[in-house]
Specification:
two-stranded antiparallel ribbon; 4 strands; 71% helix; two-stranded antiparallel sheet; alpha+beta
Length: 100
C-alpha cells in the first residue's frame, strides 16, 4: 500500500486520504463496538435481590450497552488516529527515501 500511496498524484492522494479517513472512522466505530461487546465477558457479575447483572455502568447504561458504547467511541477516535499516524509515517519515509 505504501508504493500505491506514493505513486498517486497530489489530487488523487487528497481524494484517497479523504475517502479512507472517512471509511476508517466508520470501520473504527464498528470494530470498537464489537470489541466493547466482547469485553463485557471479562467484567464480573453483581448480584442483588432482583437478580444478577454486569457490574459495569457508564452514564446509566449497564453491561453490554456500556461496554459497547465505550468501545464505539474508542474506535471512532483511535482507529482514525492510528491511520493518520500511518500516513504521516509514510510521508516521512518517502521524504527520507528521496533524500538518499
Amino acid at each position: 500500500m505504501f508504493k500505491f500511496y506514493c505513486g498517486l498524484s497530489k489530487t488523487k492522494k487528497i481524494f484517497f486520504l479523504i475517502t479512507t479517513i472517512l471509511l476508517s472512522i466508520l470501520l473504527g466505530g464498528f470494530a470498537g463496538f464489537f470489541v466493547g461487546l466482547v469485553a463485557t465477558t471479562f467484567i464480573p457479575m453483581c448480584c442483588d435481590s432482583s437478580g444478577c447483572h454486569n457490574c459495569f455502568e457508564f452514564h446509566g447504561m449497564i453491561g453490554y450497552e456500556a461496554t459497547g458504547t465505550i468501545g464505539l467511541f474508542a474506535g471512532l477516535f483511535l482507529i482514525p488516529l492510528a491511520y493518520v499516524m500511518l500516513i504521516i509515517y509514510w510521508e516521512v519515509k518517502k521524504k527520507k527515501i528521496r533524500k538518499q
